[in-house]
Design brief:
By secondary structure, the protein is mostly helical. The protein has two domains: 148 residues, NAD(P)-binding Rossmann-like Domain (Rossmann fold, 3-Layer(aba) Sandwich); 107 residues, N-(1-d-carboxylethyl)-l-norvaline Dehydrogenase, domain 2 (Orthogonal Bundle). The protein is built from eleven helices and six strands. The strands form two sheets. Strands 1-2-3 form a three-stranded parallel beta sheet. A three-stranded mixed beta sheet has the order 4-5-6. The longest helix is centred in the middle third of the chain and has 29 residues.
């Protein structure tokens, strides 16, 4: 997601640079704007948009091996666009240098929407800071929702992704069932798109890069599992929700997905 987002910012004539633990040669035509040294990257970029996978990688980026926010030339602003538990943002805020502006801005739409600059951003943070960032969001997306203070965007995102993960499981099972019953899956999705079975996942199967993946801890289906766990962590102190039942319903079925369900 990060690379097409950076390309959208560059196309909008922002001064954008990339940093990743992978070698810069892996970034094709963006290689010339990749900075291999984290200290140099931190000094050059006053605003950092983080699109790493999870909480451990976020901590590594900010305070661990990459340590963008521990040096004298730390960036002034951090935008967290990863999907994480909203509970983590309070911890992150206390560890950042005093005066650092923190905004949560997870996005939805999959890589295809990132490439086409039509992501949906769910944003939490102080209004003045969010407004100053809006030109960046507008360059990468076409729906920007400021939902409240810090954590509000992440809360909406993890709830949204619980619904998305549930629909992935349902649609994949529906495709397998249709095939077993003698109905062509493409005919099923055409009808579903115009019926009560319409979903973002089902309506965009051909455009979603990972729509046919089986479960793997390091692929996008595995990331969906992480997102559902982030949702469950957000509910940790709410006893009225049966977290075990929700986990059993969605995560167990995500782990059972295989490419054969789709092909």
């Amino acid at each position: 997601m990060g690379l097409p987002m950076a390309r959208s910012l560059l196309a909008a004539e922002f001064g954008v640079y990339g940093f990743d633990v992978r070698p810069v040669r892996e970034f094709g035509d963006f290689e010339g704007r990749m900075i291999a040294d984290p200290a140099e990257f931190a000094a050059r970029c006053p605003t950092v948009i983080s699109v790493v996978r999870d909480i451990p990688q976020t901590l590594e980026l900010c305070f661990g091996q990459q340590a963008l926010f521990t040096g004298e030339a730390a960036p002034r602003r951090l935008v967290v666009s990863s999907t994480l538990s909203p509970r983590f943002l309070g911890e992150l805020a206390t560890r950042l240098p005093q005066g650092t502006e923190l905004v949560d801005a997870p996005m939805s739409g999959a890589p295809v929407a990132a490439r086409e600059a039509r992501l949906t951003f769910m944003v939490g943070g102080e209004e003045a800071v969010v407004n100053s960032l809006r030109p960046l969001f507008d360059a990468m997306g076409n729906a920007i929702h400021h939902l409240g203070g810090l954590g509000a965007g992440m809360t909406v995102k993890v709830v949204n992704n619980f619904v998305a993960a549930s629909s992935v499981v349902a649609v994949r099972h529906a495709l397998a069932a249709a095939r077993a019953l003698g109905v062509a899956p493409d005919l099923l999705t055409q009808v579903m798109a115009q019926s009560s079975g319409a979903t973002w996942f089902g309506d965009n199967l051909d455009a979603i890069d990972w729509s046919g993946e089986g479960y793997g801890p390091d692929n996008t289906i595995g990331i969906l599992e992480k997102d559902v766990n982030s949702f469950l962590d957000a509910l940790r102190d709410l006893p009225e929700f049966d977290k075990g039942e929700l986990e059993e319903t969605v995560i167990r079925n995500l782990r059972k997905l295989s490419p054969a369900d789709f092909s």
